[in-house]
């Protein structure tokens, strides 16, 4: 499917994340002909997210993904506000510390089930964001109801991924940091965690850490292995398609 990720003019489809109330950035993205906007916050079930979502949908004819959430009520409220897809996951990331720092979070499989019970009634896809450690976790997330998954730590070790390649005790690693890490917050992700107003580095409260992950080679070879694992999981379940696995 060589055109699966391209628009009618043959251009690669592109999406971009925005914070709550960042209408100047939203206007600029629309002018640049972005294909989808993601209202991306650590706590997606909030009035600010709902208001931003409603404003975008009332002003522009564009698909909007909203998140992150973990409950059926959150799914219902975001769908009612106009979300075209939901991003699910509170704290399951490999180097996310939200659950430890804040005490908030839901096990990822439970969160997916909670949200898809509502989303399926409205034909709204769910994106499982976080908690994917192995290819088998992709199969589990889809079987729980997700239409797609997001990968962070697994891709972080690839040749094509950003991050410095380092040698540690004779092994190759790539540097990796979570969106909620101090380093990422200083570079601009603080808004995602409602800490945009923090003016000093020591006033930020990180919800993630920085570290390194094993070097995994090239993207093409690694994705081939992930797809193979997913196919194996589908085979064990007797599913011939993603839709069958979801059901």
Automatic annotation (TrEMBL):
Species this chain originates from: marine sediment metagenome
Family (UniProt): Belongs to the IMPDH/GMPR family.
Pfam families with a match to the protein in the record: IMPDH (PF00478)
Domain IMP dehydrogenase/GMP reductase: 2-247
GO biological process: GTP biosynthetic process
Designated name of the protein: IMP dehydrogenase/GMP reductase domain-containing protein
Single GO term (MF): IMP dehydrogenase activity
InterPro entries referenced in this protein's UniProt entry, alphabetically: Aldolase_TIM, IMP_DH, IMP_DH_GMPRt
Organism phylogeny: unclassified sequences, metagenomes, ecological metagenomes
